[in-house]
Amino acid sequence: MTKIHEAAVLIPAPLPSAAWDLTSFLENARAQIQLWGGLVLMLLGAVGLVWGGVLLIRKLIASPQTAGQQSSWGTVALLILCGGALGTGGWQFIETVGSGGQQTIEDLGGGTIIVQTVADGAAVRDDLYGGQARTGSGPT
Question: pLDDT (tens digit, 9 = 90+) per residue, 15-64?
Fold first, then answer.
């Protein structure tokens, strides 16, 4: 009869498969950097949120004589808004903002915004002149 420790020796354990090529290394490095970067952004967002709260309280309880030495309301609001967005979103928030900027650049590069503006201008001109083509300069 075979004992348990003898049976364990007879069945070879499969080794985990790992890809040891440059592409896999770079993909794993990108994923790890995104993870770490996202955590750092979330930490900075939490710090900004806390500091915005501190500045808000300091501004609310400050005397009128020291009002000129305080941070502006815009700075306080931006710290709270951006800190909250980064604190909850991290990398995902930055990626979303970046993809929106990329879409705008692609639209500008492709000329779709310019074409849309020209088409809107033609529609406004047609509305102003009752759909009739007009020649000459200035209204009559």
Answer: 666 777 888 889 999 999 999 998 999 999 999 999 999 999 988 888 77
Report how far residue 34's alpha carbon sits from residue 46's, in angstroms, rounded to the nearest whole number. Answer: 18
Type of residue numbered 1? M
Residue among 140, 129, 42, 28 at smallest CA distance from 84: 42
Chain centroid to CA 86: how far? 9
Q: Buried (b) or exposed (e) across 104-120, using 16+ Cβ within 10 A?
A: eeeeeeeeeeeeeeeee
Q: What is the CA radius of gyration of the chain?
A: 31
Residue 68 has pLDDT above 90, yes or no: no
Task: In whole angstroms, give the CA distance from residue 133 to residue 126.
Answer: 8
User: Distance (Å, rounded) from C-alpha 83 to C-alpha 51?
Assistant: 9
Q: What is the pLDDT, as a whole number, of residue 43?
A: 93
The DSSP code sequence of 21-89 is SHHHHHHHHHHHHHHHHHHHHHHHHHHHHHHHHHHHHHHHH--GGGGGGSPPHHHHHHHHHHHHHHHHH
Cβ 50 vs Cβ 84: under 8 Å: no
